[in-house]
Amino acid sequence: MTDDMDPQRYYDEFGEGEWERLDSNPVARLEFESTTDYLAEHLPEADAPSAADSDPVRVLDAGGGPGRYVCWLAEQGHRVEHCDLSSEQVSVAKEKVSKRNLEEFVTCQQADVRDLPFDDDQFDAVCSLGGVLSHVIDPDERQRAIRELRRVTKPEAPVFVSVIGRLSSIRYGLKHEERFGLLAHTAETGDYTQEAVEELADGEGWAECHFFRADEFESELEAGGLAVEKLVGLEGPASQLQEELSGVDEEAMADVREMVRKLREDRSVVDTSEHMLAVCRT
Ligand SMILES: C[S@@+](CC[C@H](N)C(=O)[O-])C[C@H]1O[C@@H](n2cnc3c(N)ncnc32)[C@H](O)[C@@H]1O
Questions:
Q1: 234 in ligand 1 pocket by Cβ < 6 Å?
Q2: Ligand 1: does its nearest atom lie under 6 Å from the Cβ of 7?
Q3: Mutate which of 70, 73, 96, 135 to test ligand 1's pocket (most atoms within 8 Å of Cβ)?
Q4: What is the mean pLDDT of residues 52-65?
Q5: Out of 19, 160, 186, 208, which could bridge 66 as a Cys pair, Cβ 3.0 to 4.6 Å?
Q6: What distance in Å separates the CA atoms of residue 86 and residue 64, rounded to the nearest whole number?
Q7: H/E stretch holding 128
Q8: How far is CA 31 from CA 46, 191, 277, in A?
Q9: 155/241 Cα distance (integer angstroms)
Q10: For the chain, how big is the Rg over CA atoms in Å?
């Protein structure tokens, strides 16, 4: 038994690779673009940097990894607190922030989303994106994490959470015969654990993960005290088509993007997407 699938260890070892992930292919770029579309639409407006005596909009990115969204948020004029379980991801985020001269607007620290080191009602908006909650396998622990996200957010403020979809992960499994033994287990439980991989699949595992159905995701967020306003399938029907879309030129990708924009809030598209985003309010 190895502990390769421990999420903290995995992201410590993955390092810079996690920064590259969101720009590594056209489908990953759709995840980022769809997410920032909804952040831009629902975040409170940032003050101009020169505005005298104005209170800056404070945004938390919990499980912010290497800081792609942190840099984007700071570039929009927000004050950002970043935290992540992986010390290596915190280092990568600090380096990315520093390279862009954004240190004045961003603070990075190591912390667990289940036990956030912030007071109640601190933030004007909170993000936990790209599957942070998917890496919290135990449902009670996930509830703890959701209640933490809610606790640190001001009343009526937006909370953005995205997780990894179960049906799409099954489609990924169907492309890899060594994982076929996991298909029925994933369909039934959504859990991709060290134990299941050792028993049911050949080859190395990725980080332990819980893959969500849309109804389940919505129920868990609501049970944790968040009101779900919108669910979005971030990659939509382009999910799991990395290889097919990798040679496609920019003009043709614009057609794909337009199609995804039209369909991404359709419930069946949400349920079959690689990542699903919930736009919530406290
Ligand atoms: C797929 S990455 C997403 C990173 C970033 N949010 C993004 O979308 O680019 C998942 C991140 O969640 C972090 N993570 C996993 N479990 C966590 C926990 N319990 N508390 C805080 N961060 C966690 C990992 O270290 C990793 O950086």
A1: no
A2: yes
A3: 135
A4: 87
A5: 19
A6: 10
A7: strand 125-128
A8: 23, 22, 9
A9: 39
A10: 18
| Burial (CB count within 10 angstroms: exposed 0-12, middle 13-18, buried 19+), residue 255 | exposed
The domain segmentation of the chain, as residue ranges, is 7-165+207-281
Cβ of 190 less than 6 Å from ligand 1 = no
Mean pLDDT across 157-179: 95
**Percent of the chain at pLDDT above 90?**
84
For 158-214, the DSSP string reads: EEEEEEEBHHHHHHHHTT-GGGGGGHHHHHHH-EE-HHHHHHH--S---S-EEPBPH
CATH for 7-165+207-281 is 3.40.50.150
The verdict on the CB of residue 31 being under 6 Å from ligand 1 is no
- Global pTM? 0.95
- Segment holding 276, helix H or strand E: strand 275-281
Position 199 pLDDT exceeds 90: no
Does the Cβ of 236 fall within 6 Å of ligand 1?
no
187 to each of 133, 170, 171, 204, 211, how far by Cα in Å? 18, 7, 11, 20, 9
